Amino acid sequence: MAQTQVKGNSNWRSSTWLCLVVVWLGIFVDICTYSIVIPILPIVVVEQGGDAWNVGLLLGAYGIGVLIAAPTFGILSDKFKKRKLFMVLGLIGLLLSTVFFALGRALGFVAFFIARFFQGASSAIVWTLGLALVSDHFRTAQGIGAAMGIVLSGFTVGQVAGAPIGGALYSQLGFYAPFIFCAVLVVIDLIGRLLIIEPAIEEAPTEIDIEESTVDAVASETADRHDDTNEDTNTPLASSATLENIKPKNSEQSGVRSFFSLLLNRHLLVLCYMTILFSACLTAIEPTLPLLLEKNYGMDALGVGLVFLAAVIPSAIAGPLAGWLWDLCKLKNLNGSHYVLLPAAIAGTVVSLSFCLILPPEGWSLPSPAPLAGLIVAVFLFGTICAFTMTPMFPEVSATVPNGSVAQSYALYSVGFSLSLLVGPLLGSAIYGAFGWGWASVCIAVMFLLCIPATIWYRSPDLK
Fold first, then answer.
1. Which of 132, 198, 201, 387 matches a 20 to 30 Å C-alpha distance to 406?
2. pTM > 0.85: yes or no
3. CB 139 within 8 A of CB 403
4. Cα 280 from Cα 273, distance rounded (Å)
5. How far apart are CA 181 and CA 184, in angstroms?
6. How far is CA 435 from CA 20, 277, 389, 428, in A?
7. What is residue 92's three-state secondary structure?
8. pLDDT grade, residue 464 (50/70/90)?
9. Is beta strand 3-7 parallel, antiparallel or unpaired with respect to 200-204?
């Protein structure tokens, strides 16, 4: 297998900063369009005579798109080394999704199903190949953790901005306004993706390549010696033991690894496990916190959005900081999981339990509800902690695999991350509806708690 090395290029279109801007924008647009559609879709489906089962099918269509597109384009991108081409194709898929959403009222449920499928496929592509592109820029350099932290802030900004924008456009300007806005975002994103130039990739010899050359050199040298000395023809050119000792021992790993073989990579699987739980902690609060603020504090949509800013603003700062700390641990050969993820998981458990003080479960002898200022402080801490748990995963994924499998590793990661986008809201909503805010908070604390053993066990494979 020949590993890839990124060759430097001074052209601004292939610069690192433009790469980060374009990938940040791609993730922002993906999550923003996702968040814009989610509040509108159930209303429109019900208007057309649909029910909860139809809404569930649309959620499933998104998952199908992710499951098909992530491994497919991860494998193709690693094989052909064409991140930009496939990212543009993914954006075309998002544009088609927007068109089918806009035509949904005229064409019916099938149009919405197709739209959700394309939306899921596009999301898988932008996450898989966008993160792989960032990894390409930092594969042989320091700072990938901080870079991934910057990219991740696009997720939090898009997540919070999408729903209020979509709701306002839908209520003030009508059904088509949110989708026209999404189309404008897609065009802006497309300009960025067309501008960017992928870093030049050159092939560098690996251990296997060197060993194979050694085999040829030994055989050639032995043959020359035989000709010069005119030895007996029964004398072997090289002993079988010699050739056996210098044969490439890892030749079975040559070529691009199969996507499914990554399922045997225990480091990558542990990262996916922690990602699903950590991300589900964040997404579980999204549908429940607005309900709490509306019911117990009498807040409208604007007030809810302002409270959510308490989570977004610190995460936009804490993400790059967490990435920088992860880079620092790598530089000093320290296990970042113990110094970044473990403290964050413990803190997340404590803060999630503190949410119970906001509106305790029935039977708990605590005042209810707590002052709004206390809730805002808790949300601020929660957003900061979530940034510290999620950001280190992004650079670490590429550290668990060889260069030829980077996009495929992010494909598997994207599947896990998308699963958390489904599990978190459903779990949070179900427990909140059945048992209230207090027990929903306990559920989030349990998910943080389940991550603690994994953070203790995990050790980056590239540490000495």
1. 387
2. no
3. yes
4. 11
5. 5
6. 42, 21, 27, 10
7. helix
8. low
9. antiparallel
